[in-house]
Write a structure and sequence with these properties.
The chain is an alpha/beta fold. 38% of the residues lie in helices and 20% in strands. The protein has 7 helices and 8 strands, in the order βββαβααβαβαβαβα. The protein has helices at 40-51, 76-88, 91-108, 121-132, 146-149, 173-184, 211-226, and strands at residues 4-7, 13-19, 27-32, 54-59, 115-119, 137-141, 160-165, 189-194. An 8-stranded mixed sheet has the order 1-2-4-3-5-6-7-8, with helices on both faces. The longest helix has 18 residues, at 91-108. It is globular, with a radius of gyration of 16 Å.
Length: 227
């Protein structure tokens, strides 16, 4: 669970999970949660990326509504609670909180190239970080609502990598086509579609986990962030 707090510009003490790299000095990575809070899957994701050489900071984006949210998406009532929290979230504020996490790294290592990576809701917010903050690069795993976000957004951004599930029930074919059309007109964007995969294909133990696709997405992510 969160083990540090980040002081935001508006004076809020934002809880966050912080894990150092297991390989010495790691590249700073803002990890962005799904709609289920910093639950077991997000804690495992944080450990995973730390094991790959990143210093991970995962802010509790629901803390302004309810601190310590830890939901199990296999339980229908908890899945709905995550949706309700997402719908009530001030996403503009969430982007500012994520930028405070980026700044937390920057204050400790001036000039550090901080990356962001998120899943689902976090995938959308990672794209917003690429568009709206000084983050060096962003990776979006099956981000939701991008077909609404991108057409109204400026073309200039940090480099951004999208991993799109070909059978994502939250991103139907027309939405996916709109997202890919936006990627085509944005030089800083790259997208990969994982055919036959559904939403959350990279969440271990999840109903739609696909080990081969998750491994491929990881290799593409590492190459992208190292470029």
């Amino acid at each position: 669970m969160p083990n540090i707090t980040i002081d935001t510009p508006d004076g809020f003490a934002l809880p966050a999970l912080h894990l150092p790299s297991t390989q010495g000095a790691g590249r700073p990575l803002v990890l962005i949660q799904e709609i289920f809070g910093i639950n077991a899957a997000m804690r495992e994701a944080a450990r995973h990326w730390a094991g790959l050489g990143f210093e991970v900071l995962c802010p509790d984006l629901f803390a302004r509504q309810q601190a310590g949210v830890d939901l199990d998406p296999t339980q229908p009532e908890q899945f709905q609670a995550g949706i309700d929290l997402m719908l009530a979230m001030d996403q503009d504020r969430a982007v500012r909180d994520l930028d405070a996490a980026r700044q937390w790294f920057a204050d400790r290592a001036p000039g550090a190239r901080v990356a962001a990576l998120g899943y689902c809701l976090g995938g959308r917010l990672a794209v917003r970080m690429a568009l709206e903050t000084p983050v060096a690069a962003a990776v979006s795993y099956y981000g939701v609502g991008l077909e609404q976000l991108l057409p109204a957004a400026p073309a200039a951004s940090a480099p951004c990598l999208l991993h799109i599930a070909g059978e994502d029930g939250f991103v139907p074919p027309p939405a996916r086509a709109a997202i890919l059309a936006e990627v085509e007109r944005r030089p800083a964007f790259t997208a990969h579609v994982y055919e036959g995969c559904d939403h959350a294909f990279a969440r271990p133990q999840g109903a739609h986990y696909d080990a081969a696709a998750a491994t491929l997405a990881q290799s593409r992510t590492l190459a992208f962030l190292q470029a």
